Amino acid sequence: MNNPDLSKPTRQSVKGLILIFIIGVRQSIRIFWPLILVVVFQEKILENKLVLGIIGVVIFTLLITHTILYYLNFYFYVSNGEFILKKGYLRKKVLAIPLDRIQSVNTKQNILQQLLNVVTLEIDTAGSVGKELKVHALAKSFATELQNQLRAGTTKKATIESSGQTETQEISEKLILKLSPIDLLKIGISQNHFRTALIILAFGFQIFNKIQDIYADKTEEYSNELANYLSQSNWALIIFLIVFFLVVSILFSLFRTVFKYFEFKLVKQESAYRIEAGLLNKRNVVLPYSKIQELNWETGPIKKLFGIYHLVFKQAVSAQNKRVQLVDAPGCLTKHLNLLKTDLFGDEVLSDIPKISTNSYYFRRLWIIFGWIPVLLISPFFYSEWLLWVGVVVWLLITGGYSFLILKKRYFRMNSNQIRISKGAISHKFTQMELFKIQSVEFRQTIFQKRRSLATLKLMNASGSMIIPYIDESMAKHIYNYLLYHTEISEKRWM
Questions:
Q1: Helix or strand or coil: residue 133?
Q2: What is the Cα–Cα distance from 78 to 246, expressed in whole angstroms?
Q3: pTM value > 0.90
C-alpha cells in the first residue's frame, strides 16, 4: 500500500465537520452557560417565539461558519524533517515538531468517532506541545498508514522528505497478550477496592452536600432520624451496610475495568509494542522500545492468587502530559512479564545479584510518623477514656505492621547496566530501567541520617523519579558517583 503523501498539506476527513460542530456546541455551552440560564429563567424571553427563533438562527449560523472555517484552515504536512500542523482562522497557530522528537503516535476513538468510522491521531512528545498535536478526524486506514510512516520517519527522515510517496513493508505483528472476559473479571476483582471506596465516598459526600444546600431546613431533621435509627439497630444492619458497600465497590471496579480494557491486546512489532483497548473510548498506542524509560510491574495478595501482574510502561513526559504517557497492561502472567523484560533489558541477570535492603531505621521513622505522633497528639484530649487506649494499642499494632511490610519490600538490585527497585506494603511494586537513561542523581542526607551514616538517593529519568531510601552512606556515595560518571560517558540515546 502506498504511504500518504506527507509533503502536501492534508486536511481531516470530511466527517470531521460533524465533530468540529459538536465540539463548538460543547465549548459554547461551557463559556455561555450563565447567559443560557438567564434566558431559560426569563419567562418573557421564552414566551417570545420570534426572539428565540432569531437567537437560535444566529447561533446556528455562527457555529456552522466556525465549523467550515476551522475545517478549511486545519491541515498538516511534513517539511524539512518536521511534522507541521496549522490551524485557526482568526488566530492562526503553527505547531512544528522534529520527527526524531516524536515520542509516540497513537490513535483514540470515542463512541461518536466509532459511529463516524474516524479516529483521533495524537502525536506525543516529551514537551508540552504534544498536548496540542491532535488530528480529530482521520479515516482509520489513513491514520494507520500515517502512524506507521511517522514512526518510520523518526529514524528515516530523509526517506519522507525526498519523496512524498514511498513504498514501505507491511509491519509484521505477533500477539503477546489478549484479555478475555474471564481475565477482565479477575482483574476487576483484584483491583484496589479501598481506593474505589474512597472515590465513591467522595462522590457521595458531594451529592449529600448538594442535597443539604437545597433542603437545608429538612436536613437536620432527617439526619437526627437517621442517627436514632442506626443507634437502635443491631449489628446485623451494620454488617449488611458494610457488605453492601463492599459489593458496590467491587461492581464499580469491574465496570471501570471493562470500559477501559475491553478487548485488550498487546502485540509485538519489530521494535515496538502496540496496545489496543477500550469499549466506549478505544485507544491504539504504539510504544517503541527506545522510548520506554522504565518498566513497572505490581502484584498483590489477590493478584498472586490469580497469578497476574499489572504492568505500566513509562515514557518521557512533561509536567502537562503525565497521564497521557502512562500506558499499562492490567493483567499478564509471569511468562508475559519475562518476555517483555527480555525484549527491553536482555537476558535476566538481576535476579542472581544479592539485594541491598533499606536500613531498619527506616521502619522506626515510618512507625513514629504514622503511629506514635498521631497518638501523642490526641492522647491529651482523651486520656481518661479507656476505649481510647484500646484504640491506641490497635492503631500502633496496625501502623507497626504496615511499616514493617514497607521495610521488607524496600530493596534494590543493580549491576553495571541496569537497576531494579522494589517497594510496596500490601502490594509489591517493581521498577526496572537501564542506567544510561538516568538523567540526574541526587544525594540526600538529613541530620538524623548523618548520625547513623545513612543516606537517600533520588534517581531521575525523563519519565519521573525513583527513591532509594536509607542505605549505607558509603554505598550511597559510591552509587552516586558511578551513576553520574555513567550518565556523562554514555553515548546511547535515552529516547
A1: coil
A2: 53
A3: no
